[in-house]
User: Fold these one by one.
Assistant:
Number 1:
Amino acid sequence: MEIFEQINLNQTAVTPDELEPLLEETVELVQKRRSQGRIIFDRFMRNRTAVFGLLFLILMVLFCYFGPTVTSHNKPDLLHPIPLNAVLEGGLRPTLQYPFGTDDVGHDWLARAMAGGQISLLVGLSSMLIAIILGIGIGSVAGFFGGIVDNLLMRFTDVFLSVPLYLLLFVLSATFTDGSPKSIIILIAALSWMYTARLVRGEFLALKEREYVLAARTIGARNFHLMFRHILPNAAGPIIVSATLLVGNNIILESVLSFFGFGIQPPTASWGNMINLGDNLFDVNPLLVFIPGMLIFLTVLSFNLVGDGLRDALDPYMTER
Amino acid sequence: MGRYIIRRLLQAIPLLILLTIFMFILIHLMPGGPEQVLFNPHMSAAARQEMRVRFGLTDPLPIQYLKWLGQTLTGNFGFSYADNLQVSYLLGQRFPATLQLFIPAFALALILALFLGVISAVRQGSITDYGLTTISYFGIAMPAFLLGLALQYVFGVWLHILPTSGTASFGTNFTPFGAFLDHIQHLILPVLTLAALSIAGWSRYMRSSTIEVIKQDYMRTARAKGVGPFTVLFRHALRNAVIPLITVVAIDFGAIAGGATITEGVFAWPGMGSLFFSSLAARDYPVLLAILTIGGTLVIMFNLIADILYGVMDPRIRYA
Amino acid sequence: MGEYLLEVQDLKTYFKVRAGRVRAVDGVSFGVRPGEKVGVVGESGCGKSVTALSIMRLLPKPAGEYAGGGILFDDQDLLDLSEREMRRIRGGKIGMIFQDPMTCLNPTMTVGKQIGEALRIHLKLDKDEAQKRAISLLQQVGIPAAEERVNSYPHQFSGGMRQRVMIAIALACNPKLLIADEPTTALDVTVQAQILELINGVCSDFGTAVILITHDLGVVAGMCDRVVVMYAGKVVETATTNELFANPRHPYTLGLLASVPRLDEKRHAQLKTIEGAPPNLIKPPSGCPFMPRCTFARAICRTNPPLDPVEGNANHLKACWVNVTDPKEQAYAERRRLARSEKQQAVVKEIAASMLEEK
């Protein structure tokens, strides 16, 4: 950290005649500069809603991944015995033993919620990572090289963007997936890279004209070096924001797929197929639907809040004077 | 301006062609294949071969594609495997229902989003703004089907004031006007569900766009001329703020089409979305292909319209 | 009406920011007579633009607020008017043009419509009359092929042309006063001269008074009848142009005039600057705001000097305790200046040495 000092002038002026001596003081300024990372962190922390979102996400991860061992609700597939009248009512209502109740065949809804959370979060995050990598790959090449390469790649991207997303999603899942999280992850990633690619392409198109790129070129930097050591770090801000929002988006995609029976298949639990299961008993036991529904909603909301908080914190006007 | 339109049209055509090829290949990759759907297990091999020829399945794929393309351009989408009806007939049957859902939802979403976005921007930082922004956050995080289910529960099961599925109530004998009202009642929840997601996203966009515009220097010039606050807002700010929204709305068309499909699924609304689901389950390829193609074409068309509108509203694009 | 068309009386305009209140305009008084051209000069951040915006009541809300004083225009205090009445004045009686012509025009409206807007609001002209008058205005401001260009959009004009359009808009309703906030700062030098000539000519023709805000003394010398010099939100000197240039009486004015390089200077002579930086406007020091940078400063300067006439000339006002024409004061100031620059050089050498050591 650098320390700037302004000049401190102390001067006594002796003047002729009756004029009094004068002591001058000018302001002494000591400025400390915070590192960029620290600035961004502070700005993020100042945004209360974003911090809430982050805290909620941390809690959710703990809930899904440590909950089963801590609370011993760790058998999502087990059919617990429940009394007959509960079956007719669509499952047990929440009790101490089953805090989220059960469905009509005796699934522990809390255990399934936690297991489902693991899957849904996993799908959301992994598909985001793959989509981001794909998007950066395609977008950076298109934006950096321009010309025919850009044209071709963007046409390709446009085709994907031109189909109504959900329709394609359903058709592809019927064709290619087998209900396993892995196939769903790949599918969702294959349909969400386009937005990142567009974004990255735009950033690269703009940034490659900057002077520092030209400067690096004049000392003989090669293309890959330019792209990934110079341009990409500067484009990182919007990409990070987009990535965060993408996770929420992908969790919704997975839940839609699973709700309509195309995504994760039971017995593997996911929040989406929990809603699918619960939909049959909607009239008698709406909790079966609304518990996983609320979990999805709150998780996606938190990702969005964090993403927006990051966007504000990474604002281009982030240098401190 | 004319040149601009023609240029965009020419750009759209190869995209359309690529799209149809993509769809075609996709459909043909689906497991099961038309054979499984068409063939009665007891058919003899000869009969099967005859069926194959009849449905054009013996031709190599590119030929099949070209034949299909030729037919499609004349409006003939072939025959449904499931019903043996003309696909175009099926589509025609279902299309009005989807339109009934789509148009009110789209209009509602657009008008409300504009209105709410501008109010939020003008009263930036106030409680109104805060409240509206919070609601829009909720709207974005909520999956469409979940909102539909929630509305069904609140208004259908709990409050019992609105119907939750279908287009008409069972076992009733309404007067024509009564039937009309009943139909409208059935329309309310699906339309709300479909509109909600779009409103959330668009109003946020409109809000930030309007905030940006209000900061511009020409707003100050207008006020220095003595222009009143409402005129300043409508004639100067809105005209500029709406322009980026056009692109967003056009891009979202694909999402709305998907949303319409999902909404039809949740509310058992007999439109093209439901047809899509049933065809998917039945592996009814001609229908699926037709729906996908129409969907894709509409998306491209909407993008084109958006580009043209953009040119109309922003003179800088026109005279570039 | 008294002799003044516009009289700003002890105007105070503050801005609320997180750190406190910025005293952007802190007791500014001056007057503009009908048809007179007054230049307001000062460095960036001295409050000249805020003064202009205050007159028009165009302060950014909610941060800007009036903390005192009055603005008399045509015998009305503008601060007492309702917003609706003020709107009639804006564009109608007082016109304003801004600094950056590239962003000051609405990109989605034709130039003719933007001029016409002012005409229709204030003069109640209908569409056709407004269009005709817009064409004539465009011709007056020197836009060629006005009949066709009236339907063009702002992005089809160059910077200088756009500023001409702005002038047309501002003068469309024949206002009594034109406020020009750094109208040429964002333009090429050659275009600057044209625009200034245009303003000068049109305003002389129509008898419009002008407040020309600028940081460029050359502009003022060429065009203005009187000059108001501002520093840190206060007026420090005001006089007729000739008087100010011939007989400056405030140390700041002296510094400004001395810093303009002259053609008859020796080559390779060091350029003269005013050392230091403007004060913090959130917590301004009591006393003369220029004191820390002033070479004439004395103990009495800890009290803020009033804006009083210079001896022998009631129209030349200065806010300074010291008589800068006194040779004794001048010697003292010169000695001060030398000592300061020596000390400064010594300190700079020290810092440079220590920084080299750190490496």
Note: The beta strands of chain A are 3-5, 11-13, 22-24, 30-32.
Number 2:
Amino acid sequence: MGSQKMEREQYPKLYLYRRIVQAKLFIDRHYAEPIDLAQIADEACFSRFHFSRLFKNSYGKTPHHYLTKVRMDNAQQLLAQGVPVYDACFRVGFDSTTSFAALFKKHFGVSPSVYQAGQLQKQTSIAANPLYAVPNCFAETFGWKKSNIR
Amino acid sequence: MQCQIVLPKPLAGKKAISDSLKWRIAVIFEKTNSMITKVTHMCVYVLNQDSAYDFYVNKLGFKIHTDAPMGPDSRWLTVTPPEQPELEITLFPVKEGGMFDTETAHTMTELVKKGVFGAAVFTCQDLMATYEELKGKGVEFKKAPTKEFYGYEALFKDDSGNWFSLSQQRL
């Protein structure tokens, strides 16, 4: 009860937050589909401009930029799993590998293929010697040695 | 490439010092001022790594940094906050073996369950939005958002019992 009072006092427009959070979760779930952000704004009963402004206040990014970030983060995961760049691009909702590669490089400073090569190299190193990823203080504490962890 | 030599204040502007000597002083000065620079790893004691994986990745939205088996019964599991990829949070299992003998493992398990350990302060862009989202995902809050001197704060617990502060700085 006390916390609800606090919420009302400090956040008089709690219902607005709930609608913004719902819109964000919708993006999280449907990032791989051709999402129409204008439609989300309509469904949340906001004007597009108002929706974009409130979303940016809460998440520091416009809905469009947030959608791109979610797609990029998921592309990173797929690339790290060894999914080919071409497939990763379409699986996160892009329809052009050129724009995907350009945005990826803008976000992470390296091209998708270079990022993937780095990740696979890291995984190979860890597979060859898992202690590659563990600070020695922890390895010693647990008694992990190259000879007893394979 | 031209480089600016930055000297300690008492020596700055001394024209009589040769460039090579200036460089040597600057290097020594830089070394002595570069002690600890960053935190790269921190530990959170968890009761079950599978469950912790689900909590930190699927509920909090953290990213997996390393998930490597260490022999048949151990696993090195670290996650990073979404926008801080250089800080690895090690999800350290509390179980017998390694650093815990039977008694210590039991005591630690009880303390973690009891919620004795406060593990970190996280920050977010908008506390109320994050609070609503995490609550919707089933995260248990010890304290709903309150106004503090510096901004807003809420407290939540992880799946083991560790508590964290979630804050938003006042703009």
Note: Chain B has a mean pLDDT of 88.
Number 3:
Amino acid sequence: MRTEIEPLLDIKDLKIAFDSTEGMLYAVKGISLEVLEKEIIGIVGESGCGKTVTALSIMRLLPGNSHVTGSLFFSGTDLLSLNEEKIRRIRGKDISMIFQETLSSLNPLLKVGWQIEENLKMHTSLDKEERFSRVLEIIKGVGLPDPERTYGKYPHELSGGMRQRIAIAIAIVCNPKLIIADEPTTSLDVTIQAQILELLREINRERNSSMIFISHNLGVVREICSMVYVMYAGHIVEKAPVDKLFTDPAHPYTMGLIKAMPKRDSKGKELFDIRGRVPSIADMIYGCPFEPRCDYAVEKCKKEFPGFKKMDNDHEARCFLAGEI
Amino acid sequence: MYVYLKKLFAMILTVLLVSLIAFVAFEVIPGNPALSRLGVDAEESQFEALSAELGLNDPLGERLSRWFKGLLTGDLGTSMRYSVPVSDLILDRIPVTLSLALMAMMFITLVGIPLGIVSAKYGHRLPDILISMISQIGMAIPSFWSGIILMYIFGIVLRWVSPGGYVPWSEDAVGAFKSLLLPAIAIALPSIASIIRYTRNSVMDQMKSDYVQLALSKGLNINSVLYKHVLKNSLIPIVTVLGMIAANILGGSIVIEQVFTLPGLGRLLINAISTRDLPLVQGMVLYIAFIIVIINFLIDIVYTVIDPRIRLGA
Amino acid sequence: MDKRSINLRIGIVLISLLFSMMIVSLFYTPFSVTEINREERFSPPSVRHLLGTDNFGRDVLSRIMKASQTAFFVGLVAVSIGTLFGVTIGAVSGYFGGIVDEIIMRFIDAMMAFPSILLALMFVSVFGVGLRNTIVAIGIMSIPSFARITRSGFVQYKELDYVRSAKVRGVSNLRIMLRHILPNVLSPIVVAASMGFSNAVLAEAALSYLGLGIQPPNPSWGRMLSESQVFITVSPWYAIAPGIFITLLVLGFNFLGDGIRDMREKRK
């Protein structure tokens, strides 16, 4: 059981709110999750459920009008209690991040090699030659040919897949213990997607880096994650080991997501879509947030928000009817 | 390479077009320059003689080709008032206006851009609001008035510099600098205000970009991000506005040279207009147009240097 | 009183104050604007002469009040010229596109590359000085920015569905331009007009300072500054006052323009 092992990242009751003209709006309303060493966990949900905000909060990258409460323990240290200087030392070195859009997340005016080297400059005391060779090493390590030439390229000169490899290189060059990947394959085409996923798996295996893989694409999550957390409207509604999630989903939302996945034989057929829309951060919610869109909802669901119902080891869902559907 | 040639060609074409317009404006429209030179009471014979001398009776086509030929050889005609070639008069005055323009540009970039960055860094907080307010006022103050006030305070009351007048660089470098300092500041003020605005907006825009987030996620502190990443990206719209600022400096110098009685191109132009010395005005307008075209050309080149997407073709 | 509309308020306050002063000056000024009074030459600001007197003993405040008429008049007419022609040119250029658009915009770009004061000076040097020519010169100088803004608005809106459907229904181009597209572009045009007003005030002041704008006996803040510069050691207030008023009027319209722009942003 997972709870018996000391997690690398231990998030408890994380709440994230933003100041706005309408008062404090909660994007994340109290979530808890753990990431173990060498583990790849997935956070899935449609856009607007709070997954990206959660990821940014781990790195303390949220804007000034945000309020984060709860506890965020990383290797025994509460990240939320650290001052700016200390958190900067962790960023890029112990925890790093990969973003979705590489064309905009890489600085268009700087050579990609330099952008990788910047991490080394910040976090190591290697001299110029050592840094350069490390960068070349890492460029080769992420599967890019001709490291020396690649070093001098600008982002727009590389293809989407190559850029993502560079982004990964930036993220792993200082051997972080945790890598947060926010939709890293969403803007890539399917064949490249597979390659990047394989690269990430390799990194996880050989460098002992844990990963948080964020996506709205269940298919991709299934490929790479061992543990999955499903988020909806700022809450975690189900968490399960990956196989269990797909064979025995307990929460209606998870079931909906699985149903909506394009499968090999669904070509030409209409894709299933969960009816309704994701509530916005400003919507007031009473009871279960998924209730308006749920096909199994009963009266109770409108008034009360269910707590976690345990299905099995490491498998829980927040639904009154979990296990019965 | 090909891109540069195309730009060069466009530049030459523009200059030709402008000179054509200058020709039409100053030789065709105003009527007879001989008339204005001699006055209405002049005798018929004097009038005829002068007209012939100035070649005013020749057909339009011939006059036009003479004009273009003159351009190629650098002959912009002869000033009616000074009876000296226009190009000589211009060359004489260039050092003054050029020094003034360069000093003004220096102030603008060295003061304006950093203030704009600070303004963006503290966006919507006190430093930003303060700087924005001051620059609003700076844009509203007529430059010649600030010149007068500066001259009064520093030249007359405090006596740190001499009020007006020009000391040539060749004679006394310090004196020259001192005589150009206040005028340059007066010219620079409104442009400093507008470059602060542009820089601020540009930097604030860039700070919303994804690469800023990535840079922060690497553990960089905000100043490093600003100066190593954001600044370069912000420069592109700023360089665009530099073209406009160069035009403002040129325009400003025309008026400021009058305020401080500096013997520059601006004063020459004003005198020329006041005395209806049309050949001189025509020559000067053309010269200024030429400068503007060159400046725009240079700015285009700067773009290609800064942005590899333009240089290497995105 | 929220932060956004503060610009607008300051602008309106400043403009109203100066406008009221101008209206008052049409009927009354504390002293005669032209009467020469040798004994009171160069007197500093006092209760009697709030802004002192000039080299002829004339009350500076009264002259400033009278000159505000010129500032508003020139600003108004020049901006109207600029708006009328600029919007028309921009609309035609943006709506019809093609080679006409290319040529017009090249021209406009060339005009914008020039220092605006130079354009005005060129006009004045060919056609002469004086009130009418000053207004026309500044009007012409304002045309390019209106043309650009209008054009980009028209280019944007002409592709919209309801414009397309109007075309399909056979609505005339003129009607489409006026009824369907123009109202949407009005907002940036109004902002430009406000800024244009302040530019016009500055341009008139500069031209008059150089002696190439408003000529005597028409009063002008700019010309007052050039007259006063000679006497600055004797009566600095004479040189300071007109500049302050120019600045205030320009500030007023700048804030107004910013304020309108902010309100537009807010509505988005």
Note: Chain B has a mean pLDDT of 81.
Number 4:
Amino acid sequence: MLTAILALSIPGTASAIQSENGYRDCGYQIAALKTRYLYGLAMTPPGGTTTNHFSSQWATKTRNGSYRGNWVASADYLDFGYTGSFCRDYG
Amino acid sequence: MTTADRHPGLLLVAAAVLVVAAGGCRDDAVSTSSTAEDQLTAREWGEGLKLCLERAGVTVIEEGAGSFSYDPGPGMSRQAMGEIEAECRQDLGPLPAPPTDAATARKYYVAYVETAECLEKLGYAVTQPPSVEVFTDQFAEGTGGFWDPFEGVYEQFPSVEAQTEAEQQCMVEIEQ
């Protein structure tokens, strides 16, 4: 089983959005996690509750939330390189 | 001890196949690349997992198109749910490999182009789709790294409400 890990890191007040090797840094506190996955997906925001999902075809899942810290996602098949996660600040 | 007691997974798999067959959902176009007769399709594998989780008391929320979410049932810890899921997975056997065939790729492509057109009508700038040939090649890699009409669009949503509206209006269910 292929398992991939995606972390969304929100360090301090940096403003740039960077994506490298599955890690994306968001420069603000409010963020959401979006990922494309196949089969089992677990999404855990920093200090939050893990949610579990299953899809029998490639699907995207977005989880909104106001969190500061590292998001972690794992799935049987997870793509974070092409569509990736995203960062957002609604102010 | 009955056969069912000794091999609950076998019954789950059989039940999954029956459920799928009864619904007329089996579609070779979305099957995996495996051609073995006894290899479950992705849809069947998912149905088997869902049945197994439900039978063990896990709360399952159906989301359509072969997708569902699940949470610990009443009084159940997340650790306990994890152990249940692990047992269910073991009973069901290996996951089917991701689909890589051109027919399935085309279904995704058609749905995604429709989604992109919808997003444009709502005023969002979308990345232009690659040719169907390029998309098919991307899809065939089996890693999920193919064009996504929502790429770059999420950053444009002015609010969560706008995001939800766009998702509801523009996400097209991919035929299985």
Note: Strands of chain A lie at 4-9, 18-20, 23-25, 30-44, 51-66, 71-79.
